[in-house]
């Protein structure tokens, strides 16, 4: 999942200034953390940056590449190293850290003389996931631009369903997983198709054939979202007339530290 929360964090800086937070904190010394753990996957999605100064035209803070970042699980500390480049991302290089359902993780980030901490619990995966079909036909069009004869819109829709009686939050990632995908358009598509939905408390998601840009095998992954991420997503935009401190579970900083679990199903676009 890579849903952007940069707008929320920029607003956070402005809200802090409006609510009387010390000027030094409102102009870029608080660490901003986007830290995501995925059950069964390596730890690679922990990013540290600075806040955005009030009045700045920027919406994303400057990456912090010299932070000390650690995860702690059951008393064992795992030190993360900076990923290649200057993106502010940190990862765990060893093979002895496996993110497991129901694990509790503590995050510690020391950056620019400040220490930020947070805690999250890895949620269980979705209890179910089913697709209405295993193939999805991408329609062809006539020379005049319309669909061919016998056009039936229902043939070009696939529905993913899951159980959600308690209205928990989920999101869906749909991506092409072919080694060498074929583009639908003759002009080609330079990047592998990948679409991330907005978080939802519904129990289904619809995939339209018209939205796909490549043929072949696709994977639909359903992620269960923790409450801290759902709260931050809900506060991602604010009316400028009513700036409030956005949701954050980071002590000594801004942003979110959260975990996800998933279940997947495949379909073929033809």
Query: Which ranges are low-confidence, i.e. pLDDT below 50, for 5 or more consecutive residues?
Result: 1-27
How would you spell out the order of helices and strands? HHEEEEEEEEEEEEEEEHE
Number of strands: 16
Largest sheet: 9 strands, mixed
- Overall shape: it is globular
Query: How much of the sequence is in beta strands?
Result: 35-45%
**Helix/strand structural class:** mainly beta
Indicate the mean pLDDT. Answer: 83
Q: Radius of gyration over alpha carbons? A: 21 Å
Short characterization:
By secondary structure, the chain is mainly beta. Helix content is 10%, strand content 35%.
List keywords for this structure.
about 270 residues; mainly beta; Immunoglobulin-like; 2 domains; nine-stranded mixed β-sheet; four-stranded antiparallel β-sheet; 3 helices; about 10% helix; disordered N terminus
Could you characterize the architecture of this molecule?
- By secondary structure, the chain is mainly β.
- It has 2 domains: 6-123 and 225-261, no CATH class; 130-223 and 264-269, Immunoglobulin-like, CATH 2.60.40.
- The chain has helices at residues 6-18, 23-29, 227-234, and strands spanning 31-38, 45-50, 68-73, 76-79, 81-82, 89-91, 104-111, 114-121, 130-131, 135-136, 157-161, 170-176, 194-196, 204-208, 216-225, 254-269.
- Strands 1, 2, 5, 6, 10, 12, 13, 15 and 16 form a 9-stranded mixed beta sheet that branches. Strands 4-3-7-8 form a 4-stranded antiparallel beta sheet, with no helix packed on it. The protein has a 3-stranded antiparallel beta sheet with strand order 9-11-14, with no helix packed on it.
- Strand 3 and strand 4 form a beta hairpin.
- Helix 1 packs antiparallel against helix 2.
- The protein starts with 5 loop residues before the first helix and ends with a strand.
